[in-house]
């Protein structure tokens, strides 16, 4: 199964991608995670990413497309994948569509006030990436899964979040129509709790 997850930052794509990956044994490909992993290495691409993401901007299309192409050549993608955070612009979607047939694009629909709260309150484990929300952390500073330090992503600070949501509206939202035209769009009410959204996703995927 080849799955694309569409939706604004904070819509819950990453959490659902992990659950889908476990249940259907498909690799979870997050372009944001790939870029963040470069920050630990001394690489030119890591520096480019830091510069753009700090401002809430998207990395240029050609760089992202190349990274995804390389990742899709890996053996674990032979039976499909879950694409989380790509494509994010029409040129990315067009380049992707030329090479790969997508089975479903799941669109996570969430109210803006909920997105703001989820993102500005989000803390992330610096080691395993597990997400936390400040309202339920009760002052803990270490990950309860792996013991890593909990940190706030630079781009989850309030000013940057506003910018990321604006970028979503202008550059990424048009992908909803793009995938509707391709005929693979499925809309999800992602204001609902994680388990409820996941049940709906399982229904959709089991019907493909
Ligand atoms: P995410 O973790 O998906 O919110 O991505 C974090 C940041 O990585 C974004 O704000 C962009 O700067 C960059 N990024 C991730 N995926 C893409 C993409 N498909 N196109 C352009 N930039 C991306």
User: What is the fold-level CATH name, i.e. the topology?
Assistant: Rossmann fold
Number of helices: 9
Cα(first) to Cα(last) distance is 9 Å
Rg is 16 Å
Q: Which cofactor or ligand species appear?
A: adenosine monophosphate
Q: Count the E strands.
A: 8
Shape annotation? globular
The helix content is 40-55%
Which blocks of ≥5 consecutive residues have pLDDT under 50? Answer: none
Can you say what the CATH homologous superfamily is?
A: P-loop containing nucleotide triphosphate hydrolases
Percent in strands: 15-25%
CATH class: Alpha Beta
User: Mean pLDDT, as a whole number?
Assistant: 95
Please list the strands of the largest sheet in the order they lie side by side: 2-3-1-4-8
Q: How many separate domains?
A: 1
* SSE arrangement, N to C: EHEHHHEHEHEEEHHEH
CATH architecture descriptor name: 3-Layer(aba) Sandwich
Give me the secondary-structure category.
Answer: alpha/beta
Q: Biggest sheet, open or closed, and with what strands and sense? A: 5 strands, parallel
Report on the architecture of this protein.
This protein has one domain: Rossmann fold, CATH 3.40.50.300. The protein has nine helices and eight strands. It has helices spanning 13-24, 31-38, 44-54, 61-72, 90-99, 112-120, 158-172, 174-182, 194-206, and strands spanning 2-7, 28-30, 81-84, 104-109, 122-125, 131-133, 150-151, 185-189. It is an alpha/beta fold. The termini are close together. Adenosine monophosphate binds at residues 9, 31-32, 35, 52-53, 57-59, 64, 85-88, 92, 155, 164. Adenosine monophosphate is lined by residues 9, 31-32, 35, 52-53, 57-59, 64, 85-88, 92, 155, 164.
